[in-house]
Amino acid sequence: MPEQARALRRTAAVVVLLTVAAGVGVVRWTSAGDGGSADDAVATGPAPLAVEATSLYQFDDLASMVAASDLVVRARVDTTTRGRLVGEGEAAVVSRIDTLEIEEVLAGDVTGSTLLVEEEGWLGDGTAIAVNGLAPSKAGMDAIWFLDRRPDAELPGYLVINHQGRFVVDGDRLEGADGKDPLVTRLEPLGPDGLTDAVRQVVGPSG
């Protein structure tokens, strides 16, 4: 168990997608909503069920979130597909695999122009979920992503650092996961250019 705990080092996404199967038991789910539109890329049906999960990180400022992220990029979702089933019974989660087309690397290093991001997608019964206010990614979505490299080499790609770590670009506006989150509400008014500049300032000339 200590080795598992060290491997699952950061995000709510890590916790949900990996420790459910490992039996660590640090995930707390509560339902909060229903109805609405479908996940355009993979299925039709009700809007995602709002759920809450305990995160290993809750950032108070942008500098802390940048420091914890292995990669910060502006990227557009090219495709999104169903991934693997993790866990059993009521704890089972089906992941969503997003292929991102990188527009700009703001922090960290990455090879190539595309990358994979795995996120929580559905409960075992097929119900789409949105964790801690982070709506499911969809094809064509443009966003600024704060990403954590997967801790297990057998599953390449990244995870969103936590629910604070993705901001959808809508023209000159940003939309974060949860309007009640203090950091999200401070960063959203910056807009895409302002957040990009703020990340670069945190990284500095040597980043």
Secondary structure blueprint with pairings:
Elements: H1 2-7, H2 12-22, E1 49-51, H3 62-68, E2 71-86, E3 93-107, E4 114-123, E5 129-131, E6 142-149, E7 158-160, E8 166-170, E9 173-175, H4 182-187, H5 191-203
Parallel strand pairs: 1-5
Antiparallel strand pairs: 2-3, 2-6, 3-4, 6-7, 6-8, 8-9
What does this structure look like?
- The protein is an alpha+beta fold and 207 residues long.
- It has a single domain, classed as OB fold (Dihydrolipoamide Acetyltransferase, E2P) (Beta Barrel), CATH 2.40.50.
- It is 21% helix and 32% strand.
- It contains five helices and nine strands, in the order H-H-E-H-E-E-E-E-E-E-E-E-H-H.
- Strands 2, 3, 4, 6, 7, 8 and 9 form a seven-stranded antiparallel sheet that branches. A two-stranded parallel sheet has the order 1-5.
- Helix 3 (62-68) crosses helix 5 (191-203).
- The longest helix is centred in the last third of the chain and has 13 residues, at 191-203.
- 36% of the residues are buried.
- The model is unreliable at 1-43 (pLDDT under 50).
Total of domains = 1
Question: What is the number of helices?
Answer: 5
Range of helix content? 10-25%
CATH level-two architecture = Beta Barrel
CATH class categorisation: Mainly Beta
User: What structural category arises from helix and sheet content?
Assistant: alpha+beta
Major β-sheet annotation:
7 strands, antiparallel
How much strand content do the residues show? 25-35%
Rg on CA atoms, Å: 16 Å
* SSE pattern: HHEHEEEEEEEEHH
